[in-house]
Amino acid sequence: MYTLVIDETITKYFSYPKGFTLNGNQYPADIFSKWSVEEKEAIGIYEVVFNSSNKKEEDYYINTNQSFNYADGVVTASYGTAVGKKLTDTNEVNEDGTPMLQDGVQVVTLGLKSNKKKVIKQQASGLLQPTDWYVIKANEVEGYTVPTDIANFRAEVRSQSNAMEDMIDASTTVAELKDLYEYTEQLDGTITRPLPEFPKEL
Fold first, then answer.
1. Which listed residue, 15, 21, 106, 180, has the most CB atoms within 10 A of its CB?
2. What is the number of H-type helices and E-type strands within the chain?
3. How far is the C-alpha of 46 from the C-alpha of 124, rounded, in Å?
4. Closest to 158 in 3D by CA, of 199, 202, 113
């Protein structure tokens, strides 16, 4: 990306190379690739230097739009301070402050915690579903019991699911929640995260 700087002010943005007219002179798009840095800057064309130091993971944060600044012969695009997404659910309201309803039901925007727990429930369901028939058979066929390894597996899936949801609920900040999912190398060389893991599929 390039900008046109005139009198130390950014006056034009080029998201991609294209021809332009400046001071009565017409310049083709290929000057962006064929001209040297010095030649381009001599007429005010500066390549943008992107600074993403303030940008945060979009799963957890709302980043600002990039702002462009020219100083000391450099054009920089940088982000402002990111804001954490809401941890908890929000009951939406109308402009007049009344509850926002859809088909008579309160409209709710899920927060990070609910969305994370929703994923965990889906994962647990996916792990349990292949062995559901054992439980159904045990309920319908007299004298049949679920094999011990299957019963233990299903119990562990539920236990880990509950433990994960409890840890998510206990998070008080976006950073705490995000850290639960961060994998790090331990002293024994294993790569683990604070949040428990589901057992492997049978």
1. 180
2. 6, 15
3. 52
4. 199
**What is the per-residue pLDDT across 120-139, written as a single tens digit (0 to 9) for each?**
999 999 999 999 999 999 99
Nearest to 41 by CA among 4, 79, 83: 4
Side chain identity at residue 66, one-letter code: Q
- Token pair of 9 as six digits: 């002010």
- Tell me the two tokens of residue 150: 């299957």
C-alpha 123/C-alpha 193 separation (Å) is 17
Q: Which residues partner with 51 through β-bridges? A: 78
Is residue 45 within 8 A of residue 20, CB to CB? The reply is: no
Alpha carbons 126 and 111: distance in angstroms, whole number: 23
DSSP state of 99: B
Instruction: Extract the tokens encoding 129.
Output: 């579903």
**Total-model pTM:** 0.81
Which residue(s) pair with 9 in the sheet? 6
Round to whole Å and give the CA distance between 162 and 166: 6
